[in-house]
Structure formats: structure tokens, C-alpha cells
Amino acid sequence: MKKKVIGVTTLLLALVVVFSGCASQGAAPSSTETGTQAVASSGSEAAAQAVVSSGSAEEKGLYAPDIKDEFMVGGVSWQLSAECKALMKQAFDTATNNVDDMKKKCQDPGEPDWKYDESANAMYYQGKRVAVVADIDDTLVQASAYDAWLVARDKSHSNVAYAEFIMSDSCIPTPGSVEFVKYCLANGIEVFYVTNRADEDKDGNTPYKAFGKTVYDISIESMTKLGFPIDDQHLIVNDPVITGSSSKESARQAIANGNEAFPNGQRESNSSGTSLTAKIAPHHIAMLMGDNLNDLTDAFSGTDLNADTRAQLIEKYADKFGNEWIVLPNAMYGDSYTFFEKYGMTKLLEEHSYK
For residue range 223-277, what is the model confidence (pLDDT) as tens digits? Predict the structure, then answer.
């Protein structure tokens, strides 16, 4: 009961701040980072920070007194939405059904490419271990509470603040996620957790300096506490400061083709510290899971794309959704908000005649 009260209080605080206009007067925290600077921020909120810093202070929003805070309204509503939770549960139920289909293929003489080694509890496709690759934030873990958590504590977006949120009781699993991961493992399928969470921000601040732990350590501890089976060989931290890119394509390729020393997060206080490496054997990636289409393929991240052309790509990959690709709902941030940076929500809606 105590956790529920805290959660509702956090949500109400966020709503009060947004609708009272405190944020536009400087009382509530907001990001001052630019879209470029936000690349080095925590993977789950990097795009959100770009959104926050996009609008002009004079611009009025449709749903909040200041356009910079409109995404927060979506975040608070998302936490209260039964439909959101139902969609999350539906996504993991669909993924579970896909695992059952793979199990049947392993037992079907007409599917010689699929094998299951019962003694080793290992599923194979064409001689490669079968794997599921999943994003963490807003896929396996509900990160939308982060913004309400910030408001309640009068904090601003930062890597250190996000690390603190991850360690708090406000960070909870997505409905059905823990059960799904355990089901995969019970049926011989490996699960790789691939995240863009990062340590060092533009000012050189890190969770290591604040808590004596890097975001890698914090992520392992947090995911373990939430009930996810996880270890150093299956958590892949694609830290943009280390890799130079927020794209997860190199991580996907490392899992698919193998990599003897894939750069994988860090243990010390900055990017010049000791970086981890992961020794990854080649796998057959049976499913990719994420709340951003870029978690599935770089096809949706082209600089020549806009909101309309990006949406049109859905048809091109229609056969993958629900099968090889599982998409989780997220109303708060993502690459579709690239337009949001340029136009702001109000102008974007007007342009599409939605107002």
C-alpha cells in the first residue's frame, strides 16, 4: 500500500506542476541540454531531453502552459493508462506465443533447422544458439515514471539522476516482462539486454562519482532486484560516449555474428576509464524487442526520414511485427519526435490538421 501511495503522490505532483505553469516559471526542473548534447545522456531519456529543450519559452502548448512540458503530460497519463498496461501485456503474450511456436518447430521433423538439446537446455537454429534481444527502458522496465519522479524531487534530467531513479523503488518492470524472460531461459533461449544507458554526461558528471558505481553496475543490480536473470555476458551497455553512436546496430551484429571483444560499458568514472568487453558467440536472433523502432533496425533512423516517410516504412516491414519484432507502446519519446524538435507539438498538430 505504501508504494501505491507514493506512486499516486508522484503522479499528482507532476500533474500539478504541469498544469499550474510552474515549469514555465522555472519552479519545476527542466532540461537545458540541446538535442546534440542529449546524445550522451541516459539511453531511456535522451530523446526526451531533446524534446524538452526544443520549444521556445514563449510558445504555448496545447496541453501544458509551456510547450516544453507537453511530453510530461503524456508521461503522467501513460502511467495511469490501463490501455498502456494492456498493450504491454499483449506484447509479451505475443512474444511468448512465438517462443511456443519455436518449441514446436524443434519437435517437428519437417523443421530440420530447429533443434533443442534437452541435456543442455539449449535451443538452436542452423547450429546457432537462439536468442532474444531486448531493449531495457520502456521495454522491460517502465521508465516513464522517471519524469514524475524528477518533479517530485525537484531534480533535472541527468545521467546521475537517472541512475538514482533506476536504484529507487519507482523503477518497476513492464507487465509480463520478467515472466517472459524467464520463459525464454526455461526453454533454452538466451536473452540479451541491450541498452543505451550512459555514464558520463556533457559536464563530466557520472553515477560513479555520485554513488561509487557505474551505470553498468547499477543496471545489473537493478535488473536483478526486479527479478530479471542477468549476467555480465548478457547485459550490453551501448554507451554512446564510448561507442560514438546511439545506434544499436553494432550490438545486434555482434550478437548475430559474434565478437571476441565487444565494447560494453565501463567500470570507472569517465570514458577514459577501464571499459568492459563482452565475448559474444554467434547467435540466431529470433526476436527483437523495443519501444523505439531503432531498437529493431537502423532503417528507421535515416537522416533523410521525416515523420511521414518513417511511418510509411511500417508497410515495408509489416510481416516482421508481432513475429520477429515486438514493439512496446511509448507515448513519451522516440525518434518520431525528431519533428517535435523542429516544430513543437502544437505546430506539428496544426500542420497535420489535427487541431
Answer: 999 999 999 889 999 877 777 778 899 999 999 999 988 878 766 654 455 677 8
- Looking at domain 2-351, its CATH class is alpha beta
Question: What end-to-end distance do the CA atoms of the chain give, in Å?
Answer: 40
Position 65 confidence tier, pLDDT thresholds 50, 70, 90: low
Q: Please name every residue paired with 190 in a beta bridge, in sequence order, or none if there are none.
A: 131
Beta partners for 128? 125
Reading phi first (left if > 0) and then psi (alpha if -120 to 50, else beta), residue 353 is in: left
How large is the C-alpha radius of gyration of the chain?
Answer: 20
Whole-number pLDDT of residue 37? 25
Instruction: Name which of 256, 263, 262 is nearest 282 in CA terms.
Output: 256
Q: 279: alpha, beta or left, given left = phi > 0 and alpha = psi -120 to 50?
A: beta
Cβ neighbours of residue 95 under 8 Å, at least 6 residues apart?
A: 132, 180, 287, 289, 326
Q: How far apart are CA 263 and CA 282, in angstroms?
A: 16
Other residues' Cβ atoms within 10 Å of the Cβ of residue 350:
13
Cα separation values, 118 from 95, 108, 186, 189, 280, Å? 22, 15, 11, 12, 22
Tally the C-alpha atoms within 13 A of residue 212's C-alpha that lie toward its C-beta: 0
pLDDT tens digits along 25-59: 333 333 323 222 222 333 333 333 333 333 344 45
The string of DSSP letters for 73-137 reads HHHHHHHH-HHHHHHHHHHHHHHHHHHHHHHHHHH-TT-TTEEEETTTTEEEETTEEEEEEE--B
In single-letter form, the type of residue at position 289 comes to M
Reported confidence tier of residue 157, pLDDT bands at 50, 70, 90? confident
The per-residue pLDDT for 26 is 31
Q: Which residues, 6+ apart, have CB-to-CB distance to 324 below 8 Å?
A: 286, 287, 288
